[in-house]
């Protein structure tokens, strides 16, 4: 997912980077300046408390051209709603989602009781993002997210997430070789690293927030939505109170509409 708006990214950047960080590393639009950028970004990271594990992960990254290609080619978000839902398999997500809800009603009831987010919304996001965990990505997370932080197109949006990824490595939350989606998203519901660091929660009680664990990922997704203003019991279709919260999960209008429609169908 490309989660949150630019406003949220700016707030996260302020939280992670603070006001005393070094001069921002110089972005670039080709691989040529990536190594120099890493040296500059390492100084920023060190100033923010990232230790040797995180810094070593940064220096081991490589410019990811596949990530750049994916960032330039998100054409599905320009489709009509009907076509978007067709190519993303909405009917299959709804059918499988109903089965998943029926198979584990206690889990979804517990999540709704704690966070106020209905099962259908969480299930629709889970199905849309990774086919219920069927494919969570094979890109190196740290390389992907640092490539996007270096790339001038949306450097401001991705820089705090790159810093978040280094912090996660440094704290042992993810491996330097952790795999995710093309934009560096992690786990069952595809959290960007800065959001994983901020909103990730331990849902299964093992003492750590692991987004490759389904229960942790669903709980973290519910926590994200609640922290963004989800109102328990309020509607989530367009024009209703919680649709604006879905908009903070992903900025694409057709994605937002599809999630709301699929969630309603899953919940009956």
UniProtKB/TrEMBL annotation:
Record-linked InterPro entries: Lysozyme-like_dom_sf (IPR023346), MltB-like (IPR043426), SLT_2 (IPR031304)
Domain of life (superkingdom): Bacteria
GO biological process: peptidoglycan catabolic process
Keyword tRNA-binding: no
Gene3D superfamilies: Bacterial muramidase (1.10.8.350)
Domain Transglycosylase SLT: 34-237
Keyword list, A-Z: Signal
Signal peptide: 1-24
Presence of the UniProt keyword Phosphoprotein in the record: no
GO molecular function, one term: peptidoglycan lytic transglycosylase activity
Protein name as it appears in the record: Lytic murein transglycosylase
